[in-house]
Amino acid sequence: MKITLNGKTIEAREGETILSAARRMGLDIPTLCHMEGLPPTGTCRVCVVEDRKTGRLIPSCSFPVSDGMDIATHSNQAVAARKTIIELLLASHPDDCLYCPGNGTCVLQRYAQELGVRQRSYSGARNRINLDVSSPSIIRDPEKCILCGRCVRVCSEVQGVSAIDFTGRGSTAQIGCAFNEGLNVSSCVNCGQCVMVCPTGALTERRDVDRVLKALDDPAMTVVVQHAPAVSVTLAEEFGIKPGSDIVDRMNAAFRRMGFDKVFPTSFSADLTVMEEAHELVQRVRKGGPFPMFTSCSPGWIKYLEEFYPQMLGNASTCKSPQQMMGAVIKRLWAPASGLDPKTVYSVSVMPCTAKKFEASRPEMGDGAPDVDAVITTRELAEMIRMFGIDISSLEGEAADSPFGERSSAGKLFGASGGVMEAAARTAYHMLTGENLKDMRIEAVRGLEDVKETTLTIAGIELKLAVVSGLGNAGRLLRDIIEGRRTYHFVEVMTCPGGCINGGGQPFLTDPERVRARMLSLYEIDRNASLRVAHENSSIAALYRDHLGEPGSKKAHHILHTTYSPREVLK
Amino acid sequence: MGECKVTTVLKRYPGAGRDKLIPILQEVQEEEGYLQREAVVMIGRHLGVPTSQIFGVATFYNQFRFEPVGRFHVQICRGTACHVKGSAKLLETLKREVGVEPGRTTRDGLFSIEVVACIGACGLAPVISINGEFHARVTPEEIPVLLDSCRKKAQEVG
């Protein structure tokens, strides 16, 4: 079918919306509530366009195309209406942009700027609502909320958690948890996907930069930093470098410029996780279960399991996540071995994730004191780099520190959905056969699909594997498993769709295609690596030789494994 | 005890889905006077609806409350006729004098306020009803007097 958009006739697809047709032709229509891949709600009305035949305004995000339609996306009438809508949204919005955590990334602010809003045209009554600071990961400021509903939708329709919903009605409507409780008693898993879709400063991560700065300024402290596999391939976007660029060496240099004493990649402890998890899988294969074994790297997933499916906790791998393994190794093994009092070691972790802040605060993740003292997101790291006036583009690259600077590309793959599976399968294969896989690449578990399945035959044993990302997908898969419709030996679950490359602590996505660029960058690193399996990482071997014995040893269990327990929340 | 009543209500809706949420909320409130947190959780489990969404639905409507009503349950009509006759001012005064928002109950359990859309007594506008007893053509000045008589009554009965 043919429609006319701004005077140009184009081919449109039956059933698609005006917005989708316009975007395909490279026309950007502003919207505050539209979510790619989910049915439209038409809540915000910012995307109105003019139907030139009737002169009426219609919401382009929810209006289907019809043959012969003649649409003006940026007519005077459409732009004026958009401006009025933004002005009305601003009527009850706080005027403190300068002090807002959303300053600079806020879409409402950007549209107000672009549409030429230069004064307050309407003054509405403001709802006075307290900040919700109860969560270790996410801060909610309902006063900044424009009720677009994206957070509610991502929480329920993508993640299947439904910690928040609209409450109240009309002018006193707001987004909140059941019984107006804080996020900390809700079923919130701290994934931060709501933060990623919030167009204003109403949802932000808890900022831990100041605690890190304080530690860096303390001469008595040895400040150690670890950075997650998915950080080095996304940080570049914060500095206008091409999405998908891997700037790990320059990032290492930036850490040193800011005063960090040691820089260790979390990919190293991802290799350690692979050793322990592959060993655990091999043990279960030999003992006959329990199957499926679930990965345990993603703290949102673990909390989800504790809340919604506590009966399946015995299936989760007991391995700590790479962040917590690194934290434990730094404070409990490295510090004493380096003649340092663990109390004088400040352990910082840079994660693509808001749930990692929660994970680090779990009481079992420490030995009296927490193993990881502060967790900052990729965005917070970018903020620090800017604060220190470091020009990341002009930095000379530097290597990570020993003894935990060496990593296999398997550990790096952890950053994308399927990566943990691929890394663990490579090492489990070696553990069972004594040989390496001929083709290291396990194509079936790669990519951004919701659910990926494959069967791997190792030493005559058929292992059925599944990879799932996004908790909504994970929940569906889990119900299939519980009700016997699907059976697997090993299932990798990532809380965020696509894995950590799309984590809640990552640079905001101005273009969904960026996730793919980030993923391909990790695959590129793996393709070009000479060390592609965890069990050939000589630093890992040294750690076992000097401290841990062998994978699954008593000491390894004490330091690298954890326990889970059912969690009573408002769900 | 509350749990039993909720269970009884839920037993009337075997295998129900989310479309039965509002009737169930109404029946539970009818039985218990208000929606307890435990009741909401139980209803959610029965229907497979998250508590956040039940709370969202229940707060959308004025009829649902999350606290037991006070000894004196004050219903104030905000229908069209009452509005024209100044019920907005009346509600402001009532809130100030009682010290709670509509839907809430005072800490001493004496008063609760409920906003209703129309009591069906437009000829008497503006109307408030205290424990079902109508008061016609109420002025803001009369509110403290009415409340005081309630307090006195409470003291007498003890």
Number of strands of chain B: 4
CATH class of the largest domain in chain B: Alpha Beta
What is the typical, i.e. mean, pLDDT of chain A?
96
Strand content of chain A: 5-15%
Number of strands of chain A: 19
How does the major sheet of chain B shape up?
A: 4 strands, mixed
What would you note in describing this structure?
The complex is a heterodimer of chains A (571) and B (158). By secondary structure, chain A is an alpha/beta fold. Chain A folds into 3 domains: 2-89, Ubiquitin-like (UB roll) (Roll), CATH 3.10.20.740; 127-206, Alpha-Beta Plaits; 210-560, 3-Layer(aba) Sandwich (Rossmann fold). Chain A contains 18 helices and 19 strands. Chain A has helices at residues 18-24, 76-91, 107-114, 150-158, 193-197, 209-216, 248-258, 266-287, 299-308, 322-337, 355-360, 378-387, 409-413, 419-433, 471-482, 513-528, 538-548, 554-560, and strands at 2-5, 8-11, 48-51, 56-59, 70-72, 138-140, 165-167, 174-176, 203-205, 222-227, 262-265, 293-294, 345-351, 366-367, 369-370, 374-377, 451-458, 461-469, 490-494. Chain A has a 5-stranded mixed beta sheet, with helices on both faces. A 4-stranded parallel beta sheet of chain A has the order 11-10-13-16, with helices on both faces. In chain A, α8 (266-287) packs across α10 (322-337) and α8 packs across α14 (419-433). Chain A is globular and about 75 Å long. In chain B, α1 packs antiparallel against α2 (21-32). Chain B has 2 domains: 2-60, Arc Repressor Mutant, subunit A (Orthogonal Bundle), CATH 1.10.10; 72-157, Glutaredoxin (3-Layer(aba) Sandwich). Chain B is elongated. Chain B has a 4-stranded mixed beta sheet, with helices on one face. By secondary structure, chain B is an alpha+beta fold. Chain B has helices at 2-11, 21-32, 37-47, 51-60, 80-84, 87-98, 142-157, and strands at residues 72-77, 111-116, 128-130, 133-135. Chains A and B meet through β7 of A and α3 and α4 of B.
